[in-house]
Design goal:
Elements (H helix, E strand, L loop, with lengths): L3 E8 L4 H14 L3 E7 L8 E9 L12 E6 L2 H7 L3 E10 L6 H4 L9 H9 L4 E4 L1 H7 L6 H10 L6 H11 L5 H14 L1
Parallel strand pairs: 1-4, 4-5, 5-6
Antiparallel strand pairs: 1-3, 2-3
């Protein structure tokens, strides 16, 4: 059973914590050991949020160090750029091509960087960066809160778990009344790969 180190990064309120719960539940169903460590930061004010997820046959520490992440899931492209040094050589980056201006940009002190996705592809290799406009997909599904499930659907294609295991984990992790839209978002992401 191969160990997998990943980090989930985004801005407060985007569903990073639910995403880590879904991943952890799926891994447990497949008999992996799982460690999750959440760092909230200024999440309630739209600040950066990072969650570490480690799974495998034996997992000691929940933290992922620089150059150790097999996968980074980024809910916002500037957050992907901010945390890219954690991705190991040959690792995969799943990134939502969405711009959420941080406070320094909002106040005019800083400028939001240009061409972030291209920079990430240059740094990681074109084939290792999976960029998608998950917000557009979520809007088409009628619920902007399912961006995270679009990204989980993409992640599912990179992981050794069956689609059924992912759907079970989603069903156990989201309120019943939102399961159908979350399932649809997952399936759209799953189908993109």
């Amino acid at each position: 059973m191969k160990n997998v180190n990943m980090i989930i990064v985004g801005v407060g309120g985007q569903g990073t914590l639910l995403t880590s719960k879904i991943i952890g539940n799926a891994a447990l169903k497949e008999s992996y050991h799982v460690k999750v460590s959440e760092v909230h930061g200024m999440s309630q004010r739209g600040g950066s949020v990072i969650t570490y997820v480690k799974l495998g046959s034996s997992v000691d520490s929940p933290l992922v160090e620089k150059n150790e992440a097999d996968i980074i899931i980024a809910f916002e492209k500037l957050e992907a750029l901010r945390w890219i040094e954690y991705l190991k050589k040959g690792g995969s980056l799943v990134v939502n091509d969405q711009q959420i201006n941080p406070m320094p940009v909002i106040t005019g002190r800083e400028k939001y960087p240009d061409n972030i996705i291209e920079k990430l592809r240059h740094m990681c290799g074109y084939e290792k960066v999976i960029a998608v406009d998950a917000l557009k997909i979520a809007k088409e599904l009628g619920n902007t809160r399912v961006v995270n499930l679009v990204l989980v659907g993409i992640l599912a294609r990179l992981m050794p778990f069956s689609k059924e295991i992912w759907l079970e984990s989603i069903k156990e992790s989201v309120p019943t009344k939102y399961y159908d839209v979350n399932k649809k978002a997952f399936e759209v992401g799953f189908g993109l790969m």
